[in-house]
Amino acid sequence: MFISISVQLTLLFVGSAFAGMNKTGSLCTVTPSGSKDDSPSIMDAFKQCGQNGQIEIEEGDYTIAKVMDVLNLRNCDISIKGKLTWNDDINYWLRNSIGVTYAQRSTAFRLGGDTFSIRGHGKALFFGNGQKWYDQNRNNSNQAGRPISLTLWKANNVFIDGITWRQPQFWQDTRGSCPAPHTFVAHSQNVTMTNLDMNATSNSQWSTVNTDGTDTWNSKDITIKNWVVTCGDDCISIKGNSSNIYVKNVTCHESGAACIGSLGNPSTTPDYVENVLFEDFTAIHSSNAAWIKTYPGQGHVRNITFRNFRFTDVNQPIYVSPCIYSYSNCDGSRLKISDVTWENITGTSRYNVAAGIYCSKSVPCTGFKFKNIEIKPKNGGSAKVLCSNMNSDSGLACTGTCPAGWKQQLSGNA
Ligand SMILES: *[C@@H]1O[C@H](CO)[C@@H](O)[C@H](O)[C@H]1NC(C)=O
Ligand SMILES: *[C@@H]1O[C@H](CO)[C@@H](O)[C@H](O)[C@H]1NC(C)=O
Ligand SMILES: *[C@@H]1O[C@H](CO)[C@@H](O)[C@H](O)[C@H]1NC(C)=O
Ligand SMILES: *[C@@H]1O[C@H](CO)[C@@H](O)[C@H](O)[C@H]1NC(C)=O
Ligand SMILES: *[C@@H]1O[C@H](CO)[C@@H](O)[C@H](O)[C@H]1NC(C)=O
Ligand SMILES: *[C@@H]1O[C@H](CO)[C@@H](O)[C@H](O)[C@H]1NC(C)=O
Ligand SMILES: *[C@@H]1O[C@H](CO)[C@@H](O)[C@H](O)[C@H]1NC(C)=O
Ligand SMILES: *[C@@H]1O[C@H](CO)[C@@H](O)[C@H](O)[C@H]1NC(C)=O
């Protein structure tokens, strides 16, 4: 009798603490609480069903007021049909976001472990309340503590599909001197992310700043397919120590499209990127289309292919720099770039430059190949192709040399 009462009291207590979570067998079902913080219910589901289980986050509006950090998922299928809104308590997030080592960035939501899936069914919506961040940031570059929306950290054998992001907190991108993406894939292997839709668009005079679509770092065997990204920064950005990366059918608006880099910072740490294929890209009103940017560092970039690109109004479609952002010590870079193919690259440039390629004199570029490149200035005339310190048998019809320190974005005709 006494025992039975105490069990009932315990159940009551658990029920009121996590009103939105029910467990049946290995299935945890989460429903919205109304207006309270739903992150405790979701964390409870991860705790009780994150190993050999399933988690269903049902339709409805959820408020997330605390960081969610789950690194021990194992054989878990997660289904999300609701809208998750990260609240706009900037002071909380600045103090509590989880550090992710890279470039002093941090994250609001981190998942790791072995063999898990997240299916959003085209219904899951991650809303970051980013406008308040863009306004508070007032066009400055990345702020420490401004969190990345979702980080995969030490995550192996992962499938993610059908999620939409709007107004993420972070740099939804990797532009500027230090990027902050919607999604960040770090120390991970065998990750497939399909049918994702991201849009970080500021509606005030302050722009989004560093809201990349995704960045990979210290990761391999990554597939990205069928994405639409609108953001102020890079769209898909492959960072240090990434290999075997396949990216297909991505449309990028207002962003840096397909990018390797930034790499090579700090210059004392080598960065290696190899075996990357980008294909079937569309870029609209963007800064660059198919490009590689490094600091004057060490390491290598090799075996990269950009193919089947269509674009309109891109500031400088093809771009290679060994001294990004500082535009100095360009010939001091020892980060070798080789075996890169650009094939079937067609569209309009904003100004009269189709390509600006500068390679470090210390490690000239080798094995560059260009096939079927057709880039015309949007206002007519012919486009310049500027090249320095690369192999002469590339197939690219260079029209002149590219000065050292040539900028990533132009502000008018050259
Ligand atoms: C949990 O299950 C009970 C009994 O089936 C049900 O009454 C309750 O509404 C459920 N709560 C949630 C949050 O799904
Ligand atoms: C890669 O991950 C997926 C999704 O979890 C899994 O189905 C597949 O077996 C994994 N591949 C390998 C080679 O482990
Ligand atoms: C992104 O969002 C902005 C603001 O809501 C909207 O104007 C724009 O059309 C959206 N972009 C795409 C590609 O849907
Ligand atoms: C913020 O930066 C954007 C993009 O560079 C620019 O268009 C806008 O004018 C800037 N806003 C202010 C208030 O300086
Ligand atoms: C490319 O991706 C878009 C956006 O996700 C999708 O609508 C379209 O069906 C995809 N195309 C192919 C050929 O898979
Ligand atoms: C990349 O890998 C190399 C070799 O394993 C390592 O020395 C370096 O620290 C790594 N770089 C980063 C940024 O983790
Ligand atoms: C180059 O990368 C591609 C993937 O884009 C891969 O299939 C191929 O095996 C790589 N080549 C070498 C020599 O590693
Ligand atoms: C070139 O790329 C476009 C756009 O992705 C594609 O439709 C076309 O089939 C490609 N052409 C060849 C020869 O592969």
UniProtKB/TrEMBL annotation:
Enzyme class: hydrolase
Major place of residence: secreted
UniProt keyword annotations, A-Z: Carbohydrate metabolism, Cell wall biogenesis/degradation, Disulfide bond, Glycoprotein, Glycosidase, Hydrolase, Polysaccharide degradation, Repeat, Secreted, Signal
SMART domains tied to this protein: PbH1
Gene Ontology annotations of biological process type: cell wall organization; pectin catabolic process
MF annotations from Gene Ontology: galacturan 1,4-alpha-galacturonidase activity; polygalacturonase activity
Enzymatic reactions: [(1->4)-alpha-D-galacturonosyl](n) + H2O = alpha-D-galacturonate + [(1->4)-alpha-D-galacturonosyl](n-1)
InterPro entries in the cross-refs: Glyco_hydro_28, PbH1, Pectin_lyas_fold, Pectin_lyase_fold/virulence
GO cellular component, one term: extracellular region
Documented EC number(s): 3.2.1.67
Subcellular location, record wording: Secreted
Entry annotated with the keyword Signal: yes
Signal peptide: 1-19
Family: Belongs to the glycosyl hydrolase 28 family.
Known function: Specific in hydrolyzing the terminal glycosidic bond of polygalacturonic acid and oligogalacturonates.
PANTHER family the UniProt entry points to: EXO-POLYGALACTURONASE, PUTATIVE-RELATED, PTHR31736
Protein name from the UniProt record: galacturonan 1,4-alpha-galacturonidase
Species per Swiss-Prot/TrEMBL record: Lentithecium fluviatile CBS 122367
